[in-house]
Amino acid sequence: MQTLALLMLLCCLLAGGQANRVYVHPFHLFAAENVSCEPLHTQTDPNLKHIPVAPLDIAVLAPDTRDALTQNGQNITERTAVLSELLNSLGLRMYQGLSSKQRSVNTVISPVNTYGTLVTFNLGASKVTARLFQRLLGLGSDTDREDCVSLVDGHKVLKTLQGINSLVDDGPKDEITTQVWVFTRRNTKLSDDFVQGTQDFSDASFIRGLDFSQPEEAEKLVSTFMEKTSGGKIKGIFQNVNTSANLLFATSFNFQGNWRTAFKPEKTSLQEFHVDEATTVMVPTMTRTGQFHYLNDKMRRCTVVKLSLSKRSYMLLVLPHEGVDLQQIESKLLTDVMSGWHESLQEGLLELSLPRFSVSSANDLRQLLANMNPEIEAKLLGSESDFNKLSDSKPFTIDQAVNKVIFEMSEEGAEPQVGVQEAGIPIKLWINRPFFFSVVEGDSNSMLVLGRIINPTL
To answer: Across the strands, what pairs with 291?
Structure first.
């Protein structure tokens, strides 16, 4: 009865993102070949293939070797559209849980990256845990009985996600780089399925074995290795490693963005940014006058403006009206709200002043799940999870899972700002207080990044 209640909760969490899909169920787009409903409580297939893990050697920094990505013959466009809807819905709910706990700091997550992490873990999950993963991801079968589960092909899902990222990397372009690190106990063998999943999901993956018996030394070794293999961008991710740890998992999602139309550096000046009623900071503020798509949402008491990034991507920036708490707006973010904003935008002449900003965050995936519901975290990654398929060692746990997101922008753009006098008097829009933003891949409508800036100087 408890499991049934949890399944109902997971379905409710994603209900908003699935309302428009009436012609096909997501499961059928990503189902494994010759799928059948497998009994939940039978033993794991003894013929599962496990492969040894290379020991961590700080002098060997090359990523794991991999096969070239291949796509199956099904309708990739349809898969992408369906998967985008699912990851957007789950990403917004995770962001809401995080922002409600971190109300006074800059925050950023990547729905694409987080979704991919969960799919990768599902490749090593037992049938009971896999069923809950698939429900959370919106990929559970609609015809399963209570005592069995039909499994999706996680590799199809991961390759579709990587395909979404590749849509962005098409110049004039923004650039996305995704890396995965897995550190496991020395002499452990990992599921071939799981190892392949880390490669489907990333531009580079590193799976290494080491000794956890001296946790502080292990932490330093892992931190040094990650710093060297990330070009100095990632270090100190894992804290309080346990001597009995089985597996540490980390990803980085690095988004380096370019505006479609560049801001002129000579128009950037130090301006006030009001962090809160008592705190004001001076921040380099870019200004550009031109035609923008924007919306004054009087009901939700905010202004929304669309900023074109690369050939396909755009930023949707949401500024609360004066006196309105940003959290009030974030708590009501749903996929239909975001799409409604986009559909209601109208073009007009703006003088836009925007702080120059970048933001990064390391998000504990277990905490993201616990923010949504502690029972979900316990069953998927916590004390009640079962990853018997992940390794030949049993029982096996995922001890830490961290998603690092780095988001960087500057004045630069793919096209120069043309010095043409726009007709009319522009409306001034000064982004001088905390705001929310999302970065969307325009073809698939996938949310690549969700974040908020409380203080651009941090």
So the answer is: 349
Scanning 123-214, the segments in alpha helix (DSSP H) are 127-137, 154-168, 192-200
Single out the residue of 175, 450, 446, 176 nearest to residue 318, CA to CA.
450
Q: Is a pLDDT exceeding 80 seen at residue 52? A: yes
Pull the structure tokens for residue 32: 């494994």
Strands, E assignment, 186-233: 189-191, 204-210
Listed residue (139, 111, 142) closest to 125, CA to CA: 139
Backbone angles phi, psi at 52, to 5 degrees: -70, 155
Q: Which residues of 158-179 are buried (b: 16+ CB within 10 A; e: fewer)?
A: bbbbbbbbebbeeeebbebbbb
pLDDT tens digits for range 279-318 = 999 999 999 999 999 999 999 999 999 998 877 789 999 9
Question: Of 262, 247, 226, whose CA–CA distance to 356 is shortest?
Answer: 262
Distance separating alpha carbons of residues 54 and 189, to the nearest angstrom: 10
Single-letter residue type at 197? G
**pTM of this prediction?**
0.90
DSSP letter at 321 equals P
| Residues 338 and 380: beta-carbon distance below 8 Å | no
